[in-house]
Design goal:
The chain is of the alpha+beta class. Helices cover 30% and strands 24% of the residues. The strands form 2 sheets. It has a 5-stranded antiparallel beta sheet. The chain starts with a helix and ends with a helix. Bound molecules: heme C. Heme C binds next to strand 2, strand 3, strand 4, strand 5 and strand 6.
Length: 202
């Protein structure tokens, strides 16, 4: 073997493990932003973990009945779901997606009840990015766009989620696979525990 070939072979053998290592490192699935600070829509969120569907949920006791029905579907990135199952808390870079869809009643063989329409009516994202946001979490509202500006912190989104959500400003009390985990790990917020005790006495 010529010296050059030997050197080439040695280099190949040396670099092989590095190449394998690079290949084995999974692509990080954390939030991505544009240079002007908007969040990019994680377009594969439909392949994430499904948490729940709300039907006509309303936070206002005197709200008028809408003339249509709505579903909201909630998804979370798989890494964050795994960490929550293990610890009952959300890790940094958690992304929760709420997808709104119109309910439809008439279609195919359906006689009663509702099913979800194919058009997405809006997407809201709740993201935990500790280094980026002073309150650790932020909201983004995507109206049919691939990027969205951050929702200002004086909006009601932040206060309602802080005051009423069961775990770390997220509504785990409505996510049936996660509520038992939070209970067993003891990570429910004090405000939520108090609120649910009062509700039970009524
Ligand atoms: C009065 C209370 C209230 C306000 C105000 C509110 N939310 Fe929520 N939010 C909820 C509830 C309840 C759920 C659970 C929905 C479900 O179970 O389907 C929720 C769930 C969410 C989720 C799913 C992830 C999570 O944190 O649980 C997102 C994203 C979200 N809301 C975004 C927003 C945005 C954006 C705003 C402001 C424009 C907002 N919310 C305002 C009560 C509120």
């Amino acid at each position: 073997m010529s010296k050059i070939a030997a050197a080439g072979l040695a280099l190949f053998v040396l670099l092989l493990p590095a190449g394998l290592l690079l290949k084995a490192t999974p692509v990080p699935s954390g939030p991505e932003y544009t240079s002007d600070g908007q969040m990019k829509l994680p377009e594969n969120y439909r392949q994430w973990i499904y948490l729940s569907t709300g039907f006509d949920m309303s936070y206002n006791p005197t709200a008028m009945q809408m003339d249509h029905h709505m579903f909201d579907n909630v998804f979370v990135n798989p890494e964050a779901y795994g960490a929550f199952r293990a610890n009952g808390t959300w890790p940094d870079k958690t992304m929760l997606v709420l997808e709104n869809r119109m309910a439809e009643g008439k279609g195919s063989i359906n006689q009663r009840g509702n099913f979800q329409g194919t058009d997405v009516m809006g997407i809201e994202i709740h993201v935990k990015d500790e280094a980026r946001f002073p309150g650790k979490w932020a909201f983004f509202i995507f109206d049919n766009a691939k990027t969205a500006k951050v929702v200002p912190t004086d909006m009601a989104c932040y206060s309602c989620h802080t005051e009423h959500a069961a775990v770390d400003t997220t509504f785990v009390q409505f996510y049936p696979t996660l509520l038992p985990v939070a209970k067993s790990k003891g990570t429910l917020s004090a405000a939520y525990v108090k609120e649910s005790e009062t509700a039970q006495k009524k």
